[in-house]
């Protein structure tokens, strides 16, 4: 039997369930999802997290393990020795006829995950135990595989992975409110003229948690051409919504010698790769989501994988929205940011598929985006997808030193405070572009899970940093 | 010609240098490392970060690009159109006879990286430009490839990748001093009875930056069996050494149903995989380090890749050290932690290769390590390697609820403050083990670079959070 396990003495449930033929005696370890007792036989469903399905363990009255099996409850941790045999039951090819049970850890009836459905809200309160449920087993297996897919996509294309800093002294990244990082005595911080002496803090200046690795990513793109980041980012915003977390992971590629069209092409390739990867490598888990969370999920993903993405300018998007019969809560007007309702209407009703909206008004986008020749728009792009709206945001960056300095001043950022950033425009400047994808946003898209708290192992949100 | 590039309109320098035959006309973009002018011809060394070597661009007097070439200095960013031809020069198979030069960004003589050697210390002060040097190009290419190797190793073996939280309310992880994360008004924080009201802080409690993902990793191991983390960790220690950074990345696998021997076997497999991966996939860059940084590097790595690791108990290690003729600065005595000089002597002189030291005295190790039956040691392990000393630290974890609670109290940790951690011992507890590898420590080992600041893109150390 082929096994990808790294240990010779142990087999994973997934390996056994996919066996072509029985290897005879096996030893397998895991946790009991259910225990069912009939006359003269106990059925234990053993799960080890390697896949959605549990392995049925049959303990018959004649077995030396029978007495032990009678004492076990849901949640117990056991090792099972026995023979892998064809299962007469439905829904599984194999089961184990147990001859020996090793009990590592019992679980009384106080174990919170007894066999019944629990609300996602309740399961959030036991985030340390919820990976032992079907739904969260699936979510975090998918999270792991998709994280690997991110690296595979970029590494196969020669991109250099950059760990951009988490602690930063920049306060002008502009993407959101920042957490402060400090070691000053909070009760009695050092002061000069009554004000806190930040130069006495750990790093010699006021520091916070990064909101984006883009600026540092740009520095590396001007040496390695194609780079990407994949790391945690933070927002200190007091918004308790189902889509916002205070700590989340972001993927930010940055590409030298790329314009906005190249950027859209990369985003499309990347997005399609990830969706295809999930369909091919996480099929069992996606089928679970399709069955219990969102019955249109797999159909939607398959359609996206097969469809060429469309593109239209912001200006055209505004016109199309204004021409539509739809009544929007927020009126549409050139110069205003698109609201979620507008984005959804564009991608769901107007094009019925993924859509790049490009070339937004300069005033509503970040200072580093490249000014277009029309003098009033910038080379920005957002990717909108049905059911979610905006999922990727990016731009070509302003590579012309004078234009960039001018824009920084307009955004109240003193150019001297970012001399290192400007240096890349001073010596060997190059056209470049990049985008950001919120990893959790993508996981919600690919699993159908509707709350960001349910795709992060231990979510951090206002009022909550437990576990 | 085979190309792994994701863009059809552009070729990478690495692709061209490895070409089997000339594709004829090519277009390539990058930065000029050097410019050499002879009578009637300019030689430009073009580097795009895809590999160590630059591509020689030949611009002859008859070429339309000749006038442009005459204006270019080191650091300029250009696109080159021309014909890939066999190079008559030594050390390269191919060069480009240029017919057109596109100048994206000039670089005056003020560009700091003129052709001369710079000290690593100086280059740290221009960390935003140093990736454009040979040494740091090599370091960060290796960093990227090795990060991918980490994921490949664990994913191929069925481990689930877990993003453990960065912001944490635990203050008992025990691995070091923590940075505080807060949004309270530092000038005038809310107070109750004169003391700061931490419950009014963003997360409703006092929070800091994680020093380890292990505890949360353990929670996931009790659901998925084999898991790993790979993320940033932090130490707020005011130690200005060449080996300590305030922000660094850690790899922490955690494995259910594993004892100390399994843990050592995994660490050995992992370490050898990583070294072999580097030798096979980063050869050019390693040869650079071998030539300019540490001439014993590749020999040492090849030896480690081919050697079975040895193992001895702490007790035996102490005896061997005491029996040796070596004079140590710190005397060796059972019960004391091993100093760097002892570790180096063990791995370099006594076994001359990688060495696991196991079963340390309980009093010098963390609370979560499993108590051995002798009642005075714990199932800990450190991996020592020549030239570095300790590079991996791990243990089997205490899975017995009563023993763990007892140990927590002995460490002044109130068990109630970690109820969620104890829950894994309460329901379905299992033997498990894991270890931590500091990613930067490993990069120093594999590159020969001697300062941690030189293997981190933008290092954070006391007094320094620039860029």
Structural write-up:
Two copies of one chain form a homodimer. By secondary structure, chain A is α+β, with helices and mostly antiparallel strands. Helix content of chain A is 30%, strand content 25%. The first copy, chain A, has 13 helices and 18 strands. An eight-stranded mixed beta sheet of chain A has the order 6-12-13-18-17-16-15-14. In chain A, β2 (41-47) and β3 form a beta hairpin. The longest helix of chain A has 23 residues, at 134-156. Chain A is globular, with a radius of gyration of 27 Å. At the A-B interface, β1, α4, β6, β7 and β8 of A face β1, α4, β6, β7 and β8 of B. β8 (180-182) of chain A pairs antiparallel with β8 of chain B, so a sheet runs across the interface.
The rounded distance between the terminal residues' Cα atoms of chain A is: 40 Å
Largest interface, counted with CB-CB under 8 A?
Answer: A-B, 114 and 114 residues
Work out the strand percent of chain A. 25-35%
Q: Detail the poorly predicted runs of chain A.
A: none
Structural class of chain A: alpha+beta
Strand order of the largest sheet of chain A: 6-12-13-18-17-16-15-14
Shape of chain A: globular
Strand element count of chain A: 18
Regarding quaternary structure, how should these chains be classified? homodimer
- In DSSP terms (H or I, runs of 4 or more residues), the helix count of chain A works out at 13
Proportion in helices of chain A:
25-40%
Mean pLDDT of chain A: 95
Main sheet attributes: strand count, strand direction, barrel closure of chain A: 8 strands, mixed
Could you tell me the radius of gyration of chain A in angstroms?
Answer: 27 Å
